[in-house]
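Researcher: Let's continue the batch. This sequence belongs to S-adenosylmethionine-dependent methyltransferase At5g38100, and it's 366 residues. Same format as the previous ones, please.
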Amino acid sequence: MKMMTMPNKDVDDMYSVHGHAGNLCRASIMEGLEKILKLRSSYQADQPICIADFGTADGKASLSLVKEVIDIVQTDLGQEQTIVVYYNDQPMNDFNLLSKVIQGDRQDSGLSGCSNVYPVIVPRTMYKQCLPDNSLDLAMSAVATHYLSKQVCRIANGVFMGEADNNEQRLMREQGKTDWRAFVIARGRELKPGGFLVSLNASLNDDNDETSHVDKGNHNLGKFVSDMARDGVITQEEYLATNFHSHYTRTAADFQEPFSSTLPEVDKLGLELVSVKSMKHYLQHPLFDIVEKDETEKMEYSRKVVASVFPWFHHVIRGGLSFSRTEDEKQMIVEQYFNRLQAYAFAHSDHKPYLIFTEVVIQKCI
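Model: Same format as before. Here are the structure tokens for S-adenosylmethionine-dependent methyltransferase At5g38100:
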């Protein structure tokens, strides 16, 4: 079974288009925006509306939502209203690609067609303050906070947190707790009084379900790596170096913790936890609803599954490979990994992929 390692731009990327959490938290973003606009006083008319997307990656997934926010703001406050859009991600992000997305390749794409809108790229970890105090009206973040700010252990017998032993999981949970506190406090400093943070986060739901792109869960994504080590495609050292450093098993209580533990800085900033809501989102595509798929449908299904995993996992495979390997070797290994994933998805095409998220809404009191 042959596939393209890099899904081309015409492929329906299930992760960005249908599965991206930014679209799932649209209602909360619009509700927060409505309150922000109502609170805006006449003396603030000459001040810009400032919004930010934290952990934006290439900016594609949030683009339609950002443009909708811009349209609502300028419909309410006038086309002359200045808007600043901050795009944040870690310094090693591909900001060249982000710049191209922001600029757009057509008159109606990107933000180039929006008047009085000024995009700004902020290359800094989102676990530190990225913008001045009291400067931000609306902060958004989707499918980003599960990434840990640093590696705290090497998962010896797997790739994912769920495969880690008790001590490794403890270290990752502790770092996840520290990171979430830091994220909340940093955004709290940046928000203007009355401003909102809407964050959708990879998590467990109330039934302890985990995201499952493939049959029997995402732990199988790690099994393909161990199979490649067993088959001699990668070395044992490369297998050990292939770790997904993320805490995707947070619960509602974990997201509430900065407030339930009454951190002094959270109280001092005047942050209010508006809501915490978990959800189970099935990826939407007609193929996923077909129970008895024929061979052609199974092939297309398997390609859709790869398209839902590739954007966030290909760098994990590549990152574990030895520096001594050539780029061609690395490309071949990454391609072989996704060939194995596609073959598995083809053989288990009755599985309907789903994502688990927890939406957290926070407001800074006036």
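Researcher: Any comment?
Model: The domain at 15-211+249-284+353-364 is CATH 3.40.50.150 (Rossmann fold).
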